UniProtKB/TrEMBL annotation:
One of its GO terms (molecular function) is nucleotidyltransferase activity. This is Nucleotidyltransferase domain-containing protein. Residues 41-97 form the Polymerase nucleotidyl transferase domain. It comes from Natronoglomus mannanivorans. Pfam families: NTP_transf_2 (PF01909). It comes from the Archaea.
Length: 142
């Protein structure tokens, strides 16, 4: 949920029944690009935790183009998992990680998880979304 107070915009999210806010990230001035830091941190933690299961990880969209507009912009991430990985369990852990990153750095991490087969098959069929991710995104090869 996005809440506005005057000109401030901040996120309120719920996780495991707890209501949390990233308001402190909005109110405090930052000399670093929170989106780029959040993207790097998500990629590092995900690859560290699932180094054998993640085949490919892409960060794409406004974060890569340098067009973020405060916390109304998210960090777009695509994770491609090995066929033998437990996709449901890993996806849940990655969503929890994305939530943690949002609380720590401010931007919401918009997570997309595909199997390697789904990814390759969709690319072969000319899926414009995935073609764009591969062309414009930053790859964190595992």
């Amino acid at each position: 949920m996005i809440v506005t107070e005057g000109r401030e915009i901040y996120m309120i999210a719920t996780h495991n029944g707890s209501r949390m806010s990233n308001r402190e990230h909005v109110s405090a001035p930052s000399s670093t690009n929170a989106h780029a830091v959040a993207a790097e941190e998500f990629a590092d933690r995900a690859r560290s935790r699932f180094e054998h299961e993640i085949v490919q990880l892409y960060v794409f969209g406004s974060t890569i183009r340098g067009e973020t507009r405060g916390l109304s912009s998210d960090v777009d991430v695509l994770v491609v998992l090995d066929e033998t990985a437990n996709h449901e369990a890993i996806g849940e852990v990655l969503r929890d990680l994305a939530y943690d990153i949002m609380l720590e750095y401010g931007p919401v991490v918009e997570l997309h998880v595909l199997s390697e087969h789904e990814f390759e098959q969709s690319l072969d069929r000319g899926n414009p979304f995935l073609q764009n991710v591969v062309q414009e995104g930053r790859s964190y090869a595992c």
